[in-house]
Amino acid sequence: MTDFFTRSLIVHEQLRGKIGMHSRMPVKTADDLSIAYTPGVARPCEVIAKDPARAWDLTIKNNSVAIVSDGSAVLGLGNIGAHAAIPVMEGKALLFREFAGIDAWPICLDTQDTQEIIDTVRRIAPVFGGINLEDIAAPKCFEVEKQLQDLGIPVFHDDQHGTAIVLLAALINAAKVIDRKLTDMRVVINGAGAAGTAIARLLRCVGHDPSVCRAVLDVVVCDSRGAIHRDREGLSPEKTQLLAYTNRENRHGNLADVMDDADVFIGVSKGNLLKPSHIQSMSAQPIILAMANPIPEIMPADAIAAGAAIVGTGRSDFPNQVNNVLAFPGIFRGALDSRSKRISEEMKIAAAHALAACVHEPTAEMILPNPLDQTVAPSVAAAIHSVATKTDSP
User: Fold this and answer.
1) CA distance 213 to 387
2) DSSP string computed for 212-263
3) What is the DSSP string of 122-151?
């Protein structure tokens, strides 16, 4: 791991940025200049002034996404601020281009005020076809995303929904491998932030058509104080809302207590929190998806030795990497191509099933496609486009 850190620093020093702008048209002659800029550029401006929707046809709006972060919850690094978040947002922009052909721009805001973030995104929105909110801490991220759903373009917090979509795809295929039904599974989620909340909502089909989404039997969400239950005092509004669709049996206690007879453990918290004894108390053939980075809640070898049937992490050096790059490029590609105004709940389910279907014969070592698989984004994009077309049709 130290080698990756050192090599990455060297590459960043050499490149001084992983992305850059390129020109789509030449400017070699006075004629080129007159078309690209003045006087010719006045005509498309006049057309757009009469009909703002024409910006989709005449500008970069049709293929541009803003990656907006305040640097308050970056990877496993925490609140490192706007400047330190730039390398991550650049990396994400690079992945947008490589996997979906989308021009994405790192927009790292030097504010962590909720309303200022909302206002800034509103002001920059005209040039973009979508907004990818990234690495904004909970609970602020919930309000930012909610307040921006009326922009007329998709506003999607990837740490929430991208993670949940990839996780659901992994669980769909893991269930196939061990011949179980999702609807019979009890799930424990360790981590009640943005990702944990979104995963809980998606697994319990909150806001989804029950004919399309099959909910797991129950989800118990744990934070640093243990299980979130109805008798706990001092819960935040966000954690109180979780109880509307989680912990049906009102289980109390710490992580070890609620792991008894659970079928699935999902970690979006901190490294080395899950013990072999926790896994040994689970049901037969347990599924462990330990996604804390860079150190997972339990190392795969230890989980398997404790009896786990399937293990996934957020890391690329182990099988079954649960990585958002499997979701967000295709989601935005499909949304841009269909000019969707938002990413609907139905789109999230469709994306998860399309991603799961990319693995034709799942095994314990392969419940998700390789993050470098170039066929994934087009498959997810097609699913998003299909839902958008159906939804927008008369």
Assistant:
1) 14
2) T----SEEEEEETTEE--TT-SS--HHHHHHTTTS-TT---S-HHHHTTT-S
3) HHHGGG-SEEEE-S--TTHHHHHHHHTTTS
Nearest-5° angle of CA 75, CA 286, CA 304? 75
Helix extents (H) in the chain:
2-15, 30-36, 42-50, 55-58, 81-100, 114-124, 140-147, 158-177, 194-203, 237-242, 255-258, 276-280, 300-305, 328-338, 345-357, 376-392
pLDDT digits (tens, 9 = 90+) for 185-229: 999 999 999 999 999 999 999 988 887 899 999 999 999 999 999
Tens of pLDDT, residue by residue over 252-281, are 999 999 999 999 999 999 999 999 999 999
Task: Determine the Cα–Cα distance for residues 304 and 281; give it in Å rounded to an integer.
Answer: 14
Cis peptide leading into residue 106 (ω within 30°): no
Residues 48 and 263: their CA atoms lie apart, in Å, by 55
Instruction: Residue 22: count other Cβ atoms within 10 Å of its Cβ.
Output: 6
Measured distance CA(76)–CA(191) in Å, rounded: 13
| Conformation bin of residue 366: beta by default, left when phi > 0, alpha when psi is -120 to 50 | beta
186-190 vs 155-157, strand pairing mode: unpaired
Annotate 57-66 with b (16+ C-beta within 10 A) or e (fewer).
eebebebbbb
* Burial (CB count within 10 angstroms: exposed 0-12, middle 13-18, buried 19+), residue 369: buried
CB 343 within 8 A of CB 389: no
Tell me the C-alpha distance between 332 and 129, whole Å: 9
The question of whether 92 is a catalytic residue gets the answer yes
Output the pLDDT for position 2.
57
Q: What are phi and psi of 83, to 5 degrees?
A: -65, -45
Q: Which residue has the tokens 């506003």?
A: 155
Which tokens go with 210?
A: 């029950």
Candidates 155, 125, 129; CA nearest to 142 is 155
Told to judge if 245 belongs to the known catalytic residues of this protein, a careful annotator would answer no
Which one of 61, 92, 239, 348 is the catalytic residue? 92
Q: Which one is catalytic: 18, 28, 37, 181?
A: 37
